């Protein structure tokens, strides 16, 4: 049964569960969706880091934090439910495998992020070195440039 609840004037749709098992099923489905969303984000970020010349790092970090918070909240809710009713062994095994795969995906994504940061640092160092060289040429050009001398006075 679904009900509409208003909190601070904002409507929320929630579902009343008939049993602890049904509640666990609903929460595990929500966690599974959060896992899917997190995995899709990982894949999109990895593709962006591999193909984009200069990815928007602030957006990537924000999206990652947002998806992780959602995943963490769903997992916390499911763990709370597990304290009230024993989960099925198959569900626990499936979620452990899924979370392990997400963690492995994060390791790969972190490696790509570190590689991108190293590339940025190298590019920045090359630009700074190039600017130093140009500054050196600028000083020489100022010495060799023709000057107008006012001899009218």
What do you see in this structure?
- By secondary structure, this protein is mainly alpha-helical.
- It has one domain (17-130).
- The chain is 76% helix and 8% strand.
- It has 3 helices and 2 strands.
- The protein has helices at residues 20-51, 57-84, 89-144; strands spanning 2-7, 10-15.
- Strands 1-2 form a two-stranded antiparallel ribbon.
- Strand 1 (2-7) and strand 2 form a beta hairpin.
- The longest helix has 56 residues, at 89-144.
- The model is unreliable at 1-5 and 12-16 (pLDDT under 50).
Count of distinct strands? 2
Q: Structural class, from helix and strand content?
A: mainly alpha
| Span between termini | 99 Å
What integer value in Å does the Rg equal? Answer: 28 Å
The shape, in one word, is rod-shaped
Helix content: over 70%
Largest sheet: 2 strands, antiparallel
* Total of DSSP H or I helical runs spanning 4+ residues: 3
Can you describe this structure in just a few lines?
The protein is mostly helical. The protein contains three helices and two strands; from the N terminus they run ββααα. It has helices at residues 20-51, 57-84, 89-144, and strands spanning 2-7, 10-15.
């Amino acid at each position: 049964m679904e009900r509409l609840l208003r909190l601070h004037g904002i409507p929320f749709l929630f579902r009343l569960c008939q049993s602890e098992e049904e509640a666990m099923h609903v929460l595990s489905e929500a966690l599974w969706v959060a896992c899917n969303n997190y995995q899709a984000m990982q894949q999109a970020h990895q593709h962006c880091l591999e193909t984009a010349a200069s990815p928007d790092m602030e957006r990537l970090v924000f999206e990652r934090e947002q998806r992780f918070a959602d995943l963490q909240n769903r997992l916390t809710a499911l763990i709370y439910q597990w304290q009230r009713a024993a989960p099925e062994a198959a569900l626990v095994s499936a979620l452990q495998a899924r979370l392990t795969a997400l963690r492995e995906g994060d390791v790969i994504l972190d490696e790509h992020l570190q590689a991108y940061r190293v590339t940025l640092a190298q590019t920045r160092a090359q630009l700074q070195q190039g600017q130093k060289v140009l500054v050196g040429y600028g000083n020489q050009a100022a010495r060799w440039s023709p000057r107008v001398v006012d001899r009218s006075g």
